[in-house]
Amino acid sequence: MVEYTKDVADRVLRILQASGQVEEDKMTEIMVRAESRSARALGLLMEGLDDIHDPGVAPVPLIEEELVVNILSRAYALRRKNLAPGDVAPEALASLPNEMIEREHILPFAREGRFLRVATVDPTKATLANQIKALSNQNVEFFLIKPSEFNACMGHDEVKAALGKRQEKEKAAAPARTQAQPRKRSSYDIDDPSVVIKFVDDILHQSIAADASDIHVEPYRETARIRFRVNGVLEAQEQFSEFLFKNYLPVVTRFKILADCDISEKRLPQDGAITFKDAEGNDVDTRFNVLPGKNGERICIRLLKGDPSLSIDKIGFKEGDLQKLIDAITAPQGMVLVTGPTGSGKTTTLYGALQYINDPGTNIMTAEDPVEYYLEGLGQTQANEKIGLSFSSILRAFLRQDPEVILVGEIRDQETVEIAVKAALTGHLLLSTLHTNDAIATISRLLNMGVPSFMISAALSLVVAQRLARKNCASCLAPDEKATPSALEYIGFTSEEIQGFQAQKGQGCSACDGTGYKGRQGIYEVLRVTPEVEEAILKQAQAPEILEAARTDNFMTMQEVGRDYIRNGVLSLEEFTRVLVVN
C-alpha cells in the first residue's frame, strides 16, 4: 500500500490547518493517535477515526483523497489525473525497470510520441525526470493520482501480469545481478558506539576493494546512507545504512578526527585529508570535505590514486588524435589544455602526458590541489589557499626554478591564466585543465577570462575535451531494444547510417556482475591550433566558424566519436546520452 511521505504529509497538514479544513481539536486527536507521525496522521484523516465508545460504527473520513490531491497539485504545480487500471498501457510499463517502479512508487501508464506519462502519489518524485528520461529515452510528464488509484492499478491482474512478464525478462537477462545483489543487513551492533572506529575503517577499505573514486556519507530525516562512485556512477552501500543512521554523529566525528578537522565546528564547511593503509599495506591518500546540511553534515571523500598506472597510448585515444597530443607535448613550448567535468579523467590524461615526456634531462614542475598522483622525477607542489599558496603564486615561483615543463592543476582565475599564457610564450611547455563543455568552448572561455585573441592564438597548441563512459561488457552483448531508429536519429545518426549497423548493449552476466558494463572508455575530441584555427581565433570567430576551420585537420567532436563507439558496439545508447550532450 502506497502512502504519502513525511515531507509531503507535513506540507498538506500545514495547508489544512491554515485553511481551517480540519478542526483544531480533531487535528490534536489525530496527531496523538498517530504518535506525531505526520504521514500516519494524514492517513487517519483520509480513513477516519474509530469511535472508541462504539467500535462497531464505521469510521467517517475527515477529508477526501480528492482534496489532498488537489492541494498537492496546486502546491507542486503538477497536473491531476483520474487513472483506472484500464488506462495503463503494457508498453509504457515496459519503459522502466520493475525494481524502480516498485521502489519509487511510480507508474508509467502511457507513451505518446516522444513523451512517457508517469503517474505518482508523491509529487517530489518529479525530481526523477532526468533519470527516467535516460532510461526510457523519452521526455517525461508527471501526473498526480490518488493513493487508492495507485493501489488499484498496481493490484489489477493485467498490470501485475505485465510487470510479471517484465520481471521474468529482467531475470533471464541478468541472473548474476539478481543473485549478486540481495538486500544486505547490517553486520554491526547498532547500539554499540565503540564499533564506530571499525565501521569507518570498513567503509574506507571496502571503497578500495570496490575501486571507488569517491565516498559519499549522507544524512536524511529517516535514514542515512553511504554511496561509492564506481565507474563514474554512484552506488548505494546498503550494508552500512542501519548502523550509520543510529550512530551518524559519532561516525562524522570519527571521519573529522581522521581528516584533522575541528570536531566542534558544525556550521561551516571544512576541508581536510585522510591517509590510511590498504589491504597490502600501501598508503592511500584522500581529499576530505564536510558540508553542513539541513539534516546534518554531509561528507565527500575523494580517493587519490597515488600512482599513474596508464600510459598515454592506453587510455583510449584514436590513433590520429594520439599523434596530435604527442606532437604538442614534445614541442619545446606552448599550452596544452584538458577540459571536462569532475571525474572525466583529466588528471589521468595529464599524467599520462607527463609520464611520456618525463626523463632526467627535463625539469618538470607541477602545482596541484591536491597532488593526486606521485611520479618520480617531478617537482610537485600542493596549493594551499589558506596560507596564500595559490596557483598564481606557485606559478610565479616556478618561473624562477628553470623548468622546461609546467603543470598547473586548474586555471581558475584571470591572474593564473595571464601567468600561464606568458609562460607558454616564453619557452615553456604548460599543461593545465579548464572547465568547459567542449574543446572549442575553451577558446571562448579564455577570451572571457581576459586573454587577448592574439595571445591565445600564439600560446595555445592543443585542447583535449573528454568524458569517461562505461563500456559494454563484451561477454553479454545483445541488440539494444531501446535503440530505435528515432532514438538513434535523435543523437545524430542519419537514416542511411542506421541501416548499416545494429546498436548493442550488455545484458548482464557473471563477467560483469550483472551490470552489462565492464571497464571504461575515454571519449576525446582533440583540437589542434592549425593556421586555419589560429586565423579564426584572431578574428574572434564564433564557435561554428572555429569548428569549420578545425574540420580541415580531421577534427571530430565527442558526439561523433561517441557515435562511432555505438556503431562498433563499445557503447550503449543509454551510456551515450548519460555522458554526452546531444547536439
How is this structure best described in words?
The chain has 583 residues and is an alpha/beta fold. It folds into four domains: 63 residues, no CATH class; 86 residues, GMP Synthetase, Chain A, domain 3 (2-Layer Sandwich), CATH 3.30.300; 112 residues, Beta-Lactamase; 195 residues, Rossmann fold, CATH 3.40.50. The chain contains 25 helices and 19 strands. Helix 17 links the parallel strand 14 and strand 15. It is globular. The protein starts with 5 loop residues before the first helix and ends with a helix. About 2% of the residues have low confidence.
Order of strands across the widest beta sheet?
A: 13-12-14-15-11-16-19
- Average per-residue pLDDT, rounded, comes to 86
Which structural class is indicated by helix and strand composition?
alpha/beta
Taking the sheet with the most strands, its summary is:
7 strands, mixed
Which overall shape is indicated by the principal axes computed on the Cα atoms?
Answer: globular
- Proportion of residues in helical segments: 25-40%
Record field, number of beta strands: 19
Strand content: 15-25%
Tell me the Rg in angstroms.
28 Å
CATH topology of the largest domain: Rossmann fold
How many domains in all? Answer: 4
In CATH, the homologous superfamily of the largest domain goes by the name P-loop containing nucleotide triphosphate hydrolases
CATH architecture of the largest domain: 3-Layer(aba) Sandwich
The end-to-end span amounts to: 42 Å
Instruction: Indicate the CATH class of the largest domain.
Output: Alpha Beta
Uncertain stretches: 173-184
